[in-house]
Design goal:
The protein contains no helices and eleven strands. It is mainly β. The strands form two sheets. Strands 2, 4, 5, 6, 9, 10 and 11 form a seven-stranded mixed sheet that branches. A hairpin with a 6-residue loop joins β4 and β5.
């Protein structure tokens, strides 16, 4: 599966952004067959989990610091996985990546569970 993340930009603290991950499944594979996750990597830091959603479109987990501010969803018609980010803070500044997993064996938050990754979209939140 191919993943294309978009929607990043430069915004002020308190603003909102909506990221999108477009998925392109191989021929013959049904849409929505992947578990999807969003991760982020700030400068000088390790990549960290942000949010995940299961095949049925139910959010599976969120990073504690984004709960109540970020919402992950699935848009079946567009075959995308949006990440709505509200009340952005400077500490949300990072490159955001979407990822796909055929199954989760242990932990939605683990990078190792995800087989495919998009190229990333940069989010910068100024104070």
């Amino acid at each position: 599966v191919q993943l294309q993340a978009s929607g990043g930009g430069l915004v002020q603290a308190g603003s909102s952004l909506r990221l999108s991950c477009a998925t392109s499944e191989p021929s013959g594979q049904p849409r929505g067959s992947w578990i999807m996750g969003w991760f982020r990597q700030a400068p000088g830091k390790e990549r960290e989990f942000v949010a995940a959603i299961n095949r049925k479109g139910v959010a599976a987990d969120y990073l504690d610091s984004v709960k109540g501010r970020f919402t992950i969803s699935r848009d079946a018609a567009k075959n995308t996985v949006p990440l709505q980010m509200n009340s952005l803070k400077p500490e949300d500044t990072a490159i955001y990546f979407c990822a796909a997993a055929s199954q989760i064996t242990n932990d939605f938050r683990s990078i190792d569970e995800y087989e495919y990754w998009g190229q990333g979209t940069k989010v910068t939140v100024s104070s």
